[in-house]
């Protein structure tokens, strides 16, 4: 998290800071789009923690044209494509005033759940209507030749000399994606609504002179972005690496800010993408990669942690479908918590882990030490317990902790139980699904080799009727018994899976045994071994 604190140190003497981002509400938002807002929130928290007065703004670019027909009904396509998103009806129902309000609403709810609370949300359709952008529209039109020259120089984009940086909302058909402005007389612009200006929408052919002010027109994206910076006094605005390339959108807007609107652009914090394993996420039983769907499975603090663990300039590979990516995310979060609480943890832990843990918490004012030391049950253990009939999860977890859960720990447990249930329903791989064969030793256990049988018999003897406490203790016992007999751990685990599940693989064996009744474990390991008081079954002596 040193990057956020470094940024705070860099701007500490520059007075109050305005952090901004904005988004086009063009449809369902992919979970990767949450990386920007989480980074924005952490910058804001870091600045405030360093005593810098800071405001966080978030804009909805809802005058942008509708350009994706996937969510429109066939009869609406011709009519709606090219109109401002703020003027397209809600495709889902009557729940919101427009298409833009619907999708921005879903996104904003997700923010809220993640502990991201901008001081202000602004809607560009409202901002244009107030006339606040009129001075910028005027400047852009007066300096149209300079704007064309910047596009040519910075991005190698050649606009004809008649091109003016403005999009008019056609007064006849209501579309904005189909119009171009070809002249400006100081008060009105001359526009054309062209049938074939773009391939995804058709204009109606109207041409004429019109006043561009008070919401009748909007600036093209690069100019609108720079105008937002001036209008709101933005000093810091992170943006995705797709926009941060040389000659890309950010470079153009930076040049326009400096040369057309004559203001230094905000500091950029470019950030990398989150990639979802290269696999399509909306298939079969998967829940998809939509931000609000992932947020149903991954609780907010682990989701913040997913984005915050790597530095902004590192890409994140995340592949939750049919993998243990989600359990591993929880384990990693718990490791950071343990290290923050001063406990020893396995493996290397990056410097700044305390800050990463602190910024992952939902509440900026949380007591980090208390949060770090709270007892958190391992996610895969919970996922296992939930699949075993008759288990009282809360009392199992209290046995593991060795004392009663406090109020906060009960909240964490409830949250994790819900997450584990959702994970089992939507993402878990087959190996994580278990059905313990209670009635009898599974037939598949007949294939156990002599050394595996001896391992089970020894395990049964050593564990006895009592068995160790908790998954880690079982895991160590399994390793030590296997080691004694020179049995590779893989084959020891296989013996346990065959004896209890009737298949050669399964979830972590120690946790499986810990989730079961101890006497049952004793009886079953012994029965599956085939051993009797007088020794191994006939014909299965281990030859050393
Ligand atoms: Zn709606
Ligand atoms: Zn038109």
Query: Uncertain regions: pLDDT < 50 for 5+ in a row?
Result: 279-287
| Ligands, ions, cofactors | zinc ion
The separation of the N and C termini measures 55 Å
As a percent range, the share of helical residues equals 40-55%
Question: What's the mean pLDDT score?
Answer: 91
| Cα shape | elongated
Total helical segments:
22
Structural class: mainly alpha
Cα-atom radius of gyration: 30 Å
As laid out across the biggest beta sheet, the strand order is 1-2-3
Number of strands: 12
**Beta-strand proportion:** 5-15%
Q: Sheet bearing the most strands, described?
A: 3 strands, parallel
Task: For this entry, give a set of tags.
about 550 residues, mainly alpha, binds zinc ion, three-stranded parallel sheet
How do the helices and strands line up, and which of them pair or pack?
Layout: H1 2-11, E1 17-23, H2 35-49, E2 54-60, H3 74-80, H4 99-113, E3 120-123, H5 124-130, H6 134-142, H7 144-155, E4 167-168, E5 179-184, E6 189-193, E7 207-210, E8 217-218, H8 221-232, E9 239-240, H9 249-259, E10 270-271, E11 274-275, H10 291-297, H11 300-308, E12 316-317, H12 325-340, H13 353-360, H14 368-373, H15 379-385, H16 393-401, H17 407-426, H18 450-463, H19 470-484, H20 489-500, H21 509-514, H22 518-529
Parallel strand pairs: 1-2, 2-3, 9-10, 11-12
Antiparallel strand pairs: 4-8, 5-6, 6-7
Helix pairs in contact: 1-2, 7-9, 8-9, 11-13, 12-13, 15-17, 18-19, 18-20, 18-22
This protein binds zinc ion (ZN) (2 copies).
The site of one zinc ion has 6 residues, from loops.
């Amino acid at each position: 998290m040193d990057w956020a604190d470094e940024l705070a140190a860099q701007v500490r003497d520059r007075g109050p800071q305005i952090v901004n981002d904005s988004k086009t509400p063009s449809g369902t938002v992919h979970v990767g789009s949450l990386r920007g807002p989480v980074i924005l929130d952490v910058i804001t928290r870091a600045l405030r923690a360093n005593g810098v007065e800071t405001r966080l703004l978030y804009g909805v670019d809802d005058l942008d044209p509708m350009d994706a027909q996937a969510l429109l009904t066939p009869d609406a396509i011709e009519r709606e494509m090219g109109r401002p998103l703020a003027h397209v009806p809600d495709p889902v129902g009557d729940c919101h005033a427009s298409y833009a309000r619907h999708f921005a609403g879903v996104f904003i709810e997700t923010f809220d759940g993640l502990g991201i609370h901008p001081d202000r949300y602004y809607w560009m359709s409202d901002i244009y209507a107030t006339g606040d952008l009129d001075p910028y529209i005027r400047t852009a039109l007066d300096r149209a030749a300079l704007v064309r020259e910047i596009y040519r120089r910075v991005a190698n984009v050649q606009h004809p000399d008649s091109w003016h940086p403005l999009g008019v909302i056609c007064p006849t058909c209501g579309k904005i994606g189909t119009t171009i402005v070809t002249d400006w007389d100081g008060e009105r612009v001359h526009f054309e609504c062209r049938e074939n200006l773009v391939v995804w929408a058709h204009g109606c052919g109207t041409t004429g002179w019109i006043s561009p002010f008070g919401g009748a027109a909007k600036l093209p994206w690069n100019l609108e972005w720079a105008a937002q910076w001036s209008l709101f006094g933005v000093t810091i605005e992170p943006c995705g690496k797709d926009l941060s390339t040389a000659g890309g959108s950010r470079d153009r807007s930076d040049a326009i800010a400096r040369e057309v609107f004559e203001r230094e652009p905000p500091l950029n914090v470019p950030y990398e993408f989150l990639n979802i394993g290269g696999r399509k996420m909306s298939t079969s039983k998967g829940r998809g990669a939509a931000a609000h769907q992932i947020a149903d499975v991954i609780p907010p603090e682990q989701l913040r942690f997913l984005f915050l663990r790597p530095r902004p300039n590192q890409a994140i590979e995340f592949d939750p479908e049919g993998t243990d990516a989600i359990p591993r995310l929880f384990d990693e979060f718990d490791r950071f918590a343990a290290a923050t609480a001063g406990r020893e943890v396995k493996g290397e832990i990056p410097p700044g882990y305390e800050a990463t843990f602190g910024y992952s918490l939902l509440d900026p004012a949380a007591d980090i030490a208390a949060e770090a030391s709270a007892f958190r049950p391992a996610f895969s253990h919970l996922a296992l317990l939930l699949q075993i009939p008759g288990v009282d999860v809360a009392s199992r977890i209290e046995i593991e902790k060795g004392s009663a859960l406090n109020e906060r720990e009960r909240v964490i447990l409830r949250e994790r139980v819900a997450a584990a249930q959702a994970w089992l329903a939507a993402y878990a791989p087959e190996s994580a699904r278990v059905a313990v064969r209670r009635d009898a030793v599974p037939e598949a256990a007949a294939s156990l080799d002599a050394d595996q049988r001896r391992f089970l018999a020894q395990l049964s003897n050593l564990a006895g009727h009592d068995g160790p406490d908790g998954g880690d203790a079982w895991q160590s016992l399994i390793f030590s018994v296997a080691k004694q007999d020179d049995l590779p751990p893989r084959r020891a685990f296989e013996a346990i899976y065959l004896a209890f599940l009737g298949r050669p693989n399964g979830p972590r064996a120690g946790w499986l045994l810990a989730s079961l009744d101890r006497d049952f474990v004793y009886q079953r390991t012994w029965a599956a071994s085939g051993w009797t008081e007088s020794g191994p079954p006939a014909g299965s002596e281990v030859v050393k």
